[in-house]
Give the backbone structure.
Amino acid sequence: MINQLHPIRSASKTLPPIATGAVAAAIFIADTVTEADIPVGVFYVAVVLMTARFCRARGLVLVAAGCVVLSLLSYFLSAPAAPDAPGVVNLLISIGAIGVTALLVVQGQSAAETLREQASLLGLSHDAIFVRDLHDRITYWNRGAESLYGWTSDEAVGNLCHQLMQTTFPAPLEKINVELLRSSGWEGELIHTKRDGTQVAVASRWALQRDGRGDPVAILETNNDITERQRAEEALRESERRYKSIFRTAGVSIWEEDFSLIKAAIDKLKAQGVEDFHAYFAGHPEFVVECISLAKVVDVNDATIELFKAQSKNQLLDSLNAVFTPDTMDAFAGELIAVAEELSLFSAETTLQTLTGDKLTVLFAITFPPGPSKLDRVLVTVTDITKRKRAEEALRENEEKWRGVFEHNPTMYFMIDTTLTVLSVNPYGAEQLGYAVDELAGESVLKIFHEDDRAEAQRNMTRCLDQLGKVASWELRKLRKSGEVLWVRETARAMLMKGVPVILIVCEDITERKRAEYLAGQVFESSPDAISMVGRDHRYRRVNPVYERLWGVPVNMCIGKHVADLLGAAAFEQTIKPHLDRCFEGEEVRYTEWFTTALGRRYLAMSYTPLRMNSNHIEAALVVVRDLTDHILISEALRTAQAELARVNRVTTMGQLTASIAHEVSQPITATLANAQAALRWLGGRPPNVEEVRHALDEIVKSSNRAGDVIGRIRALVKKAPPRKDRFDLNEAVRDVIVLTRSEVLRHRVSLQAELARDLAPVSGDRILLQQVLLNLIMNAVEAMSNTTEGKLNLRISTETETDGGVRVAVCDCGPGLDPQSLDRVFDAFYTTKPDGMGMGLAICRSLVEAHGGRLWATANQPRGAVFQFTLPPEGDETASAPRAS
């Protein structure tokens, strides 16, 4: 069957062009051989109309042009020797008819194409969209409707929609139609039956379509599935019912309160700049009192009525003042702090009173709703702990009478008997060793000493028992339960307790002191820096081994040597001695300088710190010398590589602007050619128009200058030159970049706005490098907006003066914006979101801005897009660069 249909389809495609050609040939013959007074060429209109059935606009225009050519050919073949007026008129009428017909047909095809595109957009929508006529017969059915209801477009089109989907309306259909005709629209919720028999709830929007005379012709209906939303709402209502049941029957006191006025008052304080609410509430108790009246009691449960001895619920709904006491104020202030700090939970112990005046010690907890909330519904649970608190207080008083000092003193205490068994240890002492008190009580005290110090510890304690009443002290190592070594200084005294000798030992942790002593020696001897101590007589008292490598003199020979003898008299008098004298006056001195050492010319960072041994008198200077030569050389190499990489990035960016540059250059060249041709014509006149020629030549000069300016800007951006620091007009540099990118911006249908601040102070830096930064940001913005189809594509470039006198440049686009999760990574090297990007552009831009002492960052634009902006410091504030190698 398919093979049989194939020749028929092929014939149907070839027959119309053949028939059209035959008609055109017949008209041509008739027009050529007929001497009638009527314009036979008008019949070519039929050829144009026939062509419209199988040709698009381009082919249609070519056919119309062909018909015009045939009309002209017929005229010249059949025209008399002398052209007559009727023949020319007939020819013009024919050509006009052919042109008008072709124009109308092309416009009709364009409108039809637009309608097809709009219909295809509706087909892409996820919403169920269909169109029905005024008799409710479906004329259009999109993919969303197919997905939601199950019927295909072929199955649905032509059916009555309300019969097909068995629609259940929220009101009579006649009433809905009246509202639709009155306001041209209607919104509501409907129940539809799908093809599989299940029902679906939809949010339906009807839009009435009218023709050019305002008469209704069709209804566009858009439906969204809200079945799950309705189920969620029903679940929420069920949860609300369960909550109310629990609220009423709970055995604990529950209050439902409205804190919205309190939150508003605290938000007002925040707007006024209050940040430390602890201090504010402590200094403004009247605000806390005022907030008590702002808290509204919405509801209480039965347990609350019983606990506070109320006759009815209404007695507790008036005000919290009825149950508050003066002791409650601190806890309520804590509530306010929790509100201010947006905590999710707050609990505290406080004192309340019943309506009969009885005091209650309670534990209350408040649960605040998550996220932004008006706090108009806050739950407070109150637990009566009055009896428990009384019992705890009595027990605490009995225990604290004799154990206060021993238990809570932050010092390690041990009580040892004559067999060196631990009789008692305070919690702090056990904790410091990683044990519980029960793990040490009854054990030998020697087990917590380092095995190498146990014999010494036993001798010290035995000697202490032999000398009752005398104080002894020693420094030994103990072992924590984890095996960690702990240095302690123990002070012990033996005494009689109920006639039995015991030893009371106080331990002080000196681990850090011992570690500091060890590390100080290790740092001095093994430091990679040259460290020495220089006395006020400018002689070395101590040096570390690095001095031998740096200055080529053995360590033992440096001790006692004068600084001038080691470093040279000239360096000592000109550089070292003035700095050492400042150090001996009490000042910490740091400087860097090039020195000639045993290793050659080295760039050294010198640090002089005054040393006070046992008094305020400065006895010596601690000198630290760090060799920064390799760092300086690497930094210089890095700066060179960075400059070359920046130039490569500029050239790459200029490559992206090839079309824009060609356009900018071609404009003045085209203008030059046009003016030159005009000048030739004026010179060819009789007589020549010299004034017009002079004007044309002036325009040629201007166009040549414009072309030269464009080429000059390009050469300035791509030429290889070392970084330089000049004082220049930033606004002028911005305008130059805008000129270079103008054609690229227009090619992407982007509207560029420049908001440049007036009286902008000149900046100091490398003009070319800063123009590269701006060029990269503009090109990134244009490329980001090139794939955006919604809204206007606006690109705004602005400059402004900062409060510190610096300047800020901002590039704002309306593209898709930046992912907040990757906002901090966009400036990382090799990080890119472009399929063909290298991820170096923004990294280079940030390094260039920071090299000028500025800062480059990105934020989100509103309502969409991104803002890249950078600042430059006031003139003279840039960070000084490192000195170069000599």
Summary: Residues 1-6, 878-886 have pLDDT under 50 and may be disordered. The chain is about 50% helix and 20% strand. The radius of gyration is 47 Å. The first strand starts at residue 128 and ends at 133.
